Amino acid sequence: MVNVQGINHITIRVSNIESSKTFYRNILGAKIVHKGNTDIYLDVGGVWLCLIEMVNAKPIDKNQIGVDHVAFTVSEEHFPKAVQLLREQKVEITRGPIQRGGGNTVSFIDPDRNVIEFFTGSLQERMKNWK
């Protein structure tokens, strides 16, 4: 068994690096760490996020096997502001905002229809509420 210490980074394939960079900076507050020709490395609340531009790539069908979504923790007090920002920026919300699994949650999509979630709860709270 490997002693995993945590998530190192998340890589997301995107169709346009510039529009994705703008989205992740404006919505998630991402800070640019490095920008290459077809990739960009971002820091999102201490999470290393890499966007790789895939020209002519086709979106993944939501019924295919693979990663369903990426969820970021936001504080309970900041959650209403996060939802307001999504609405002001006309980001498509796919679920919520609702209370679910021990916290408030809202799911939305990035420019390439990758699903992102803001969640206020913890794993312990979710397990208390999961049936």
Instruction: Kindly provide the name of the CATH class of the largest domain.
Output: Alpha Beta
Bulk shape: globular
The spatial strand order of the largest sheet comes to 1-4-3-2
DSSP strand content: 35-45%
Largest sheet: 4 strands, mixed
**The CATH homologous superfamily of the largest domain:** 2,3-Dihydroxybiphenyl 1,2-Dioxygenase, domain 1
Radius of gyration: 15 Å
Class by helix and strand content?
A: alpha/beta
Q: What integer is the average pLDDT?
A: 91
Q: Uncertain runs with pLDDT below 50, 5 residues or more?
A: none
- At the fold tier of CATH, the topology name of the largest domain is 2,3-Dihydroxybiphenyl 1,2-Dioxygenase, domain 1
The strand count comes to 8
Task: Provide the helix percentage.
Answer: 10-25%
Query: What is the CATH-assigned architecture of the largest domain?
Result: Roll
List the helices and strands and how they pair.
Layout: E1 9-14, H1 17-28, E2 31-35, E3 39-44, E4 47-53, E5 70-73, H2 79-88, E6 93-100, E7 103-109, E8 115-119, H3 123-129
Parallel strand pairs: 1-4, 5-8
Antiparallel strand pairs: 2-3, 3-4, 6-7, 7-8
Keywords:
4-stranded mixed beta sheet, 22% helix, globular, Glyas_Bleomycin-R_OHBP_Dase
Structure in a nutshell:
By secondary structure, the chain is an alpha/beta fold. The chain has helices spanning about 15-30, 80-90, 125-130; strands spanning about 10-15, 30-35, 40-45, 45-55, 70-75, 95-100, 105-110, 115-120. The chain has 3 helices and 8 strands; from the N terminus they run E-H-E-E-E-E-H-E-E-E-H.
